[in-house]
Amino acid sequence: MIKLYLAQPYTHQHEDCREWRFTQACKASAVLYNAGLDVRSPIAHCHPIAKYLNNHNSRDFWLRITYRWLEDCNGIGILMLPGWEYSVGIDKEILHAAHKGNFIVAFDAMTLIEKEDYRGSVRAVEDRHLAGSARGGFVPVPEILRPAGGGPASNQDNPEESKEIPRQEEG
Fold this sequence. Notes:
42% helix, alpha/beta
């Protein structure tokens, strides 16, 4: 069974933004559940609890949860909501997943959520630098998560046509 960890940006100074991101996590998780995946979304599952702990923006709180949940998953899906490419948390989650040997896939959030098209939402898989350096090779992506239309499922299948996940440099 595929256990997919859903990574996305969450932390923000405005509560309205956190609420919107929570709603998007719930919608995306529902689409992926309907596709037959077992989804772990710390935002969808823990946001209501975090509100009562007064630590919405505590990186330590979220990382304690995410590392435990990542251990139980065999893949990570990045929900590319606005700001995802600047998220320090997502960077840490990807590195943890890559070192563990998990597959990495990214979803265009609006295609996934609004069109409920999970295969059509796949935008990038297996970041060449992270997955390759962590394992010395590429992690196979399960067939259910391969892009529709027979396109390349990973950088390994066709490096010229696959898109890599752009990452912010540590600094």
